[in-house]
Design a protein that fits this description.
The structure holds two protein chains of two kinds. Chain A is an alpha/beta fold. Chain A has 14 helices and eleven strands. The longest helix of chain A has 17 residues. The radius of gyration of chain A is 18 Å and the shape is globular. About 1% of the residues of chain A have low confidence. The chains are: A alpha/beta, B alpha/beta.
C-alpha cells in the first residue's frame, strides 16, 4: 500500500472491518463458489449517492435534505458514505454547502464519510470541516482530464501527491478514483495499460484503495475483464473497487465479472442518483438497491439492509421530484 | 465438514438478518454430471426474439396488424435467426393476438429465419399449420398455482394437452419449443424448487421439444438462484437444449444471462426495446431488451449475427408507434434527443 503508515493500513484492512462489525464471522473473509466461479463472501458497498449522485442532478438540493439523506443512509448498515466534495462552488454549485453538510451530519460509529478533495485548498477546507477520509480523482484519459479538471494526467498526479503526502502526515486515508477506465466520451477506447498505469501511480503514492470508474457506462464484461487483468498486474485485487455506470445497462454483469476476478468493493448510488452528462436522459450510477438485491440473492454479505435503502431512495426521490432509477424499487411499487 | 459448518453459520446469520437464504451447496455440486462449471463462454449465441409475441402481448395498446407485420419484417432484416411471430391462442383470452392468421400470412419470411408461434392446444396447432407455421411452441409452468391461474389447469393436465400437440407436430414434421415459466419464483407460490423446474423441463424434452426455454417470469432471479436452477435442470436436459428467458423486473436479467452463458447456455430470449411490462408488478419492466443483450454479447466477442443499429431501428419504430419509451438502456443512451 505504498507509504501509508501501518496503523492507517491496518484500520482500512478487512481484519479491521470484521472487528468493527462483531457479527461478521471470520470465515466471511474466505471465498464462496457458485458453479465453479469464486466470489467474495463479503462485499463492501461504497455509497456515492450524496456526492457523485447529487452532483449530477440538475436541481440544487437543500443542505437539510442532503444531511437527512446521509443520516438515513447511515442507518442502513452501509459502511462507507461519500458525503460531499470540497471542490470550488464555481465548478460544482451542487456541492457549495460542503462544510455545512459535513458539520451537519450525525456520524454513525463504524461508518466512514470520505469527501472529495481535488487539491490542497480543498483538502485543508475538508480537514477544517472535520473530514477523516478523503478522495482524489484521476483519469485514464488525457482529454477527459483536461476537459474535466483543466490539467493533464501528470499535472493532476502532482496535485494529488501534495494532498496524499499531507493526508499521510495527518493520518487521513486517501481513496483514489480513476475515471474513464472503460472508455472516454472524447477519446473513445482507453487502453487497459493506461488505466493500470494511473491506478499504479495513485496506489504507489499512498491511496489505500483505487476505484475504477466506467464513467460513461460503455463497458461490458469483455472490456471489464481485460482492464482488470491489466490493473491487477500493478495493484492487488483487494485494493480495488469498481464504480460502474448503468448507462448501457451493463453495470450488474460488469460487477459480477469484477467479483469473479477477486474485486470485493463496489460503488453504487441509492436510487441510481445521478444521470450521465454525456448521454442526455440516460442513467448514470448503478442503483445500490439493485446491487444489494443481486449480492444478497447470491448469498454474498454486505451488512446492508435493503428494505431500509429502498426507504431512503423513496425519500430522496420525492425530495428532489424524480423517479427512481432502481428497478428493485420500481418493482416494489416505489417512487413511481 | 467445513462446507456443512458454513451452511449452519449462514442460515443462522441469514435468519438473524432476515435475508434470503441461498443453498450453499455449490461447492459439492460443481463436479456433478451434466454441469459444466466455470468454462469458456460460447462463441455464438442464438437470440430468440420474442418482442412481437411475448412483448406485444403484454402491451396495453392493441397494435394494428400492419404494424406487427412491419415490426417482424424489420426484425428479420436485423439478422435475428428466430422471431416469435404470434400466438394461436383464443382471442377471447389474448385480444392482442387475434390477428394471428393475418400476421402469419402477411410477414416476409426471410430464408434461414424461423418464425415460431405459440400453440396452447391442438386446435391452435391446427390453425397455426393452416396459416403456414413451420415451428410451434408450448408453454408449461413450474408452479402449480401459476398453471391453474394462467391456463386453468394443473401442470400435469397441461402437459397432457401438449401431448396431443406433440404427436400432431411429430407427424407433420414441425419442431416444437417448450417454455417453462416461473423457474425461479412465482407470483403466487413464492420460491420455486429447482427440482420442480427440472421435472417439467425433463418431461417436455422427453415429449419431443427440441429446446426448453426457462423463464424467470417475474424477474426475481439472481445469479445465485438462476445457477441453482440451471444446475438442477442441466442434470436432466442437455445444456445445449436449454435457453434462458430472463425478465428484467429487478434489473437482474443481464447478470443472470452472463452466469447462464458461463454454465454453457447459448440460447437467450429477449424482446426488442424490452417490450412487454410485468403484469405482476405494476409499472415495472418485463422482458430484457434485445439491444442490451446484443451489446453485452458483442462486447464479450460473442457472435449473434445481429446488426445492432438495424435492431435499434426496429425498436425505435415500435416505440414510436406504441407511443412509449424504450426500455432498452442502449437505445436510451445512444438517442441524442
Amino acid at each position: 500500500m505504498g507509504n501509508v503508515p501501518t496503523t492507517v493500513k491496518h484500520c482500512l484492512s478487512y481484519e479491521q472491518l470484521v472487528q468493527d462489525y462483531p457479527w461478521l464471522k471470520r470465515w466471511l473473509l474466505e471465498e464462496k463458489t457458485i458453479t465453479g466461479h469464486k466470489y467474495p463472501e463479503f462485499v463492501k458497498i461504497v455509497e456515492v449517492g450524496p456526492r457523485d449522485g447529487l452532483q449530477n442532478e440538475k436541481e440544487i438540493v437543500p443542505t437539510g435534505v442532503k444531511i437527512q439523506l446521509i443520516d438515513m443512509l447511515s442507518g442502513t448498515g452501509l459502511p462507507v458514505i461519500e458525503a460531499t466534495s470540497f471542490v470550488s462552488s464555481k465548478w460544482v454549485p451542487q456541492m457549495a454547502d460542503h462544510t455545512d453538510v459535513l458539520k451537519g451530519i450525525k456520524r454513525a460509529p463504524h461508518v466512514r464519510y470520505p469527501v472529495l478533495t481535488p487539491n490542497m485548498q480543498g483538502f485543508q477546507d475538508a480537514v477544517a470541516a472535520g473530514a477523516t477520509e478523503v478522495a482524489v480523482f484521476g483519469s485514464a484519459s488525457e482529454t477527459f482530464s483536461k476537459k474535466n479538471i483543466n490539467c493533464s494526467i501528470d499535472e493532476s498526479m502532482l496535485r494529488f501527491k501534495e494532498v496524499i503526502n499531507t493526508a499521510r502526515e495527518q493520518q487521513i486515508p486517501v481513496r483514489g478514483y480513476v475515471s474513464c477506465a472503460l472508455g472516454c466520451p472524447h477519446e473513445g477506447h482507453i487502453e487497459p495499460s493506461k488505466v493500470a498505469e494511473v491506478a499504479k501511480r495513485l496506489y504507489e503514492m499512498g491511496c489505500y484503495e483505487i476505484s475504477l470508474g466506467d464513467t460513461i457506462g460503455v463497458g461490458t464484461p469483455g472490456s471489464m475483464s481485460k482492464m482488470l487483468q491489466s490493473v491487477m498486474k500493478e495493484v492487488p485485487a483487494d485494493a480495488l473497487a469498481v464504480h460502474c455506470h448503468d448507462t448501457y445497462g451493463q453495470a450488474l454483469p460488469n460487477i459480477i465479472t469484477a467479483l469473479q476476478m477477486g474485486v470485493c468493493v463496489v460503488d453504487s448510488a441509492v436510487a441510481g442518483l445521478g444521470g450521465c452528462p454525456y448521454a442526455q436522459g440516460s442513467s448514470g450510477n448503478v442503483s445500490t438497491e439493485d446491487v444489494l438485491y443481486m449480492l444478497h440473492g447470491m448469498g454474498i454479505e454486505t451488512g446492508v439492509d435493503l428494505a431500509k435503502v429502498i426507504e431512503v431512495g423513496d425519500f430522496i426521490c420525492s425530495a428532489i421530484h424524480r423517479k427512481t432509477n432502481s428497478k428493485v424499487a420500481q418493482a416494489r411499487g416505489r417512487a413511481l | 465438514m467445513a462446507a456443512v459448518m458454513r451452511l449452519v453459520n449462514r442460515s443462522t446469520l441469514c435468519s438473524a438478518m432476515g435475508q434470503q437464504y441461498v443453498a450453499f451447496s455449490s461447492a459439492a455440486k460443481v463436479n456433478a454430471a451434466g454441469v459444466r462449471a466455470g468454462h469458456a463462454l460460447p462463441e455464438k449465441v442464438k437470440i430468440v426474439e420474442v418482442g412481437p409475441r411475448d412483448g406485444l402481448q403484454n402491451e396495453k395498446t392493441i397494435v394494428p396488424t400492419e404494424t406487427k407485420i412491419h415490426l417482424i419484417d424489420m426484425l428479420s432484416a436485423s439478422g435475428l435467426g428466430v422471431i416469435e411471430a404470434t400466438s394461436f391462442v383464443s382471442p377471447k383470452w389474448v385480444p392482442q393476438m387475434a390477428d394471428q392468421v393475418e400476421v402469419m400470412k402477411g410477414i416476409c419470411r426471410k430464408p434461414g429465419v424461423s418464425y415460431p408461434v405459440l400453440t396452447p392446444n391442438l386446435k391452435g396447432f391446427q390453425a397455426a399449420v393452416k396459416a403456414g407455421a413451420s415451428e410451434v411452441a408450448i408453454f408449461g409452468a413450474a408452479s402449480e398455482l401459476f398453471s391453474k391461474k394462467n391456463i386453468n389447469c394443473s401442470v400435469d393436465e397441461s402437459l397432457q394437452r401438449f401431448d396431443e400437440v406433440m404427436k400432431a407436430a411429430k407427424e407433420a414434421g414441425v419442431p416444437v419449443r417448450g417454455y417453462v415459466s416461473c423457474v425461479v419464483g412465482c407470483p403466487y407460490e413464492g420460491k420455486v424448487a429447482p427440482e420442480k423446474v427440472a421435472h417439467v423441463a425433463k418431461r417436455m424434452y422427453a415429449m419431443g421439444c427440441y429446446e426448453i426455454s426457462l423463464g424467470d417470469t417475474i424477474g426475481v432471479g439472481t445469479p445465485g438462484s438462476m445457477s441453482d436452477m440451471l444446475e438442477a435442470v442441466s442434470r436432466e436436459v442437455p445444456v445445449n437444449a436449454l435457453a434462458v428467458h430472463c425478465h428484467d423486473t429487478y434489473g437482474q436479467a443481464l447478470a443472470n444471462i452472463l452466469v447462464a452463458l458461463q454454465m454453457g447456455i447459448s440460447v437467450v430470449d429477449s424482446s426488442v426495446a424490452g417490450l412487454g411490462g410485468c403484469p405482476y408488478a405494476q409499472g415495472a419492466s418485463g422482458n430484457v431488451a434485445t439491444e442490451d443483450v446484443v451489446y453485452m454479447l458483442h462486447g464479450l466477442g460473442i457472435q449473434t449475427g445481429v446488426d445492432l443499429s438495424k435492431l435499434m431501428d426496429a425498436g425505435a419504430f415500435i416505440c414510436r408507434t406504441l407511443n412509449r419509451k424504450t426500455s432498452s438502456k442502449v437505445a436510451q443512451a445512444t438517442c441524442k434527443l
